[in-house]
Write a structure and sequence with these properties.
8 helices, 4 strands, binds glutathione, alpha+beta, 4-stranded mixed β-sheet, 214 residues
């Protein structure tokens, strides 16, 4: 199985960590955005990462890929079967993809990706507004939900934790850390999820890459 795209992307990291938690061996294949390969475009017709291939089957979108992985290897179960717990896991995945990343992306694009990889000056006002005005209510929302178990759903690692933690590694690369004084539970929770063997090598590799590319 091939996952196209670099784990600096929260969506790609989510898929790679999900596969690692399930014990599924995937090959990570970088994408040259200036020269997208036919194989990649077949998997991801709109050129977004991650794309995915399993033999002659290909698909894009992190959540679609994750549902495929869960279906082909049901154990260990990471999308709860209980209707309410399952729905909550999907909600956290969706909240992360469409609300948290939409906000964090303004910081990441303007402070990291644009200037470092596309030679474009970032719009600091957009980044500052996202960091100071838009992100804090999202973090406060999560702060109020972190249970003592350290897991959002069913007191065990699920898609919910993988989806919520992933964007925080990318935000950290862009210089935005969770304020431990304002959101102590969220900070401890995210630190613990990102320290898991499914995430830690990815994040370490990204840090090494960014320091080489500096
Ligand atoms: N909903 C998609 C979002 C994928 C996405 O937007 N990926 C970004 C990288 S974080 C991308 O490929 N951007 C390049 C582009 O839009 O051309 C998913 O969950 O996979």
């Amino acid at each position: 199985m091939i996952v196209y795209g670099a784990s600096l992307s929260p969506f790609v990291r989510k898929v790679l960590a999900f596969a690692a938690e399930k014990g599924i061996d995937v090959q990570s294949q970088p994408v040259d955005f200036a020269n997208k390969s036919a194989d990649f475009l077949e998997a991801s017709p709109f050129g977004k990462i991650p794309g995915f291939r399993d033999g002659d089957f290909s698909i894009s979108d992190s959540s679609a890929i994750i549902h495929y992985l869960e279906a082909v290897k049901p154990e260990p179960n990471l999308i709860p079967k209980d209707p309410k717990a399952g729905a909550r896991a999907i909600w956290f995945d969706e909240f992360s993809d469409t609300i948290l990343v939409a906000c964090g992306g303004k910081i990441v694009f303007n402070r990291l990706v644009g200037p470092r990889f596309f030679g474009m000056p970032g719009d600091e006002e957009v980044a500052r507004k996202a960091e100071c005005d838009e992100l804090p209510p999202l973090l406060d929302y999560l702060e109020g939900l972190i249970p003592a178990s350290g897991f959002l759903v069913e007191e065990r690692i699920t898609l919910a934790d993988i989806s919520i933690a992933s964007p925080f590694a990318t935000l950290d690369h862009a210089g935005t850390a969770i304020d431990g004084a304002r959101n102590p539970k969220l900070k401890a929770y995210v630190d613990a999820i990102l320290a898991r063997p499914s995430f830690a090598p990815l994040v370490a590799g990204e840090k090494a890459f960014l320091s080489r590319a500096a």
